[in-house]
């Protein structure tokens, strides 16, 4: 059963990834990806696999070291629970990247490959996205504000007295 749950955790997230990659301009895609509830089914799988190995899971997070973590991943449910956790967090990360890319006007032809990279190797996908995001972010001139940034004086000036 653990092997099936391991695979199910990915297939529960896959439809959302497919929408973000293949149908980025479809109105329901933005609506669905704006909700953090998309990860709930994957988190249910996580709980089903994590509960039986909770003592080992708790030991690996309470006092983390490589040997305790290795002991957890040797257990089928331990490895499966960690996989489901990675799938859930990667999906949330992908949703944020998708929505942030739309907000910044990053073309779908750029975002789709980035999202594929994020599915496969999320740290690399995130790093590349952050570089693209930094290049696309509007820059404010001194004294000018942008909706996403505090004015340059906000950090250096004390607040006005009432």
Q: Can you describe this structure?
A:
Helix content is 70%, strand content 0%. The protein is elongated and about 50 Å long. The protein is built from 8 helices and no strands. Helix 1 (2-22) packs antiparallel against helix 7, helix 3 (40-50) runs antiparallel to helix 6 and helix 7 packs antiparallel against helix 8. It has 162 residues and is mostly helical. It has helices at residues 2-22, 27-33, 40-50, 54-62, 66-74, 76-104, 108-120, 122-136. The N and C termini lie far apart (64 Å).
Mass-distribution shape: elongated
Largest sheet: none
Number of strands: 0
In sequence order, what are the helices and strands, one letter per element? HHHHHHHH
Alpha-carbon Rg, integer: 20 Å
List keywords for this structure.
162 residues; 8 helices
Please give the structural blueprint.
Elements: H1 2-22, H2 27-33, H3 40-50, H4 54-62, H5 66-74, H6 76-104, H7 108-120, H8 122-136
Helix pairs in contact: 1-3, 1-6, 1-7, 3-6, 4-5, 6-7, 6-8, 7-8
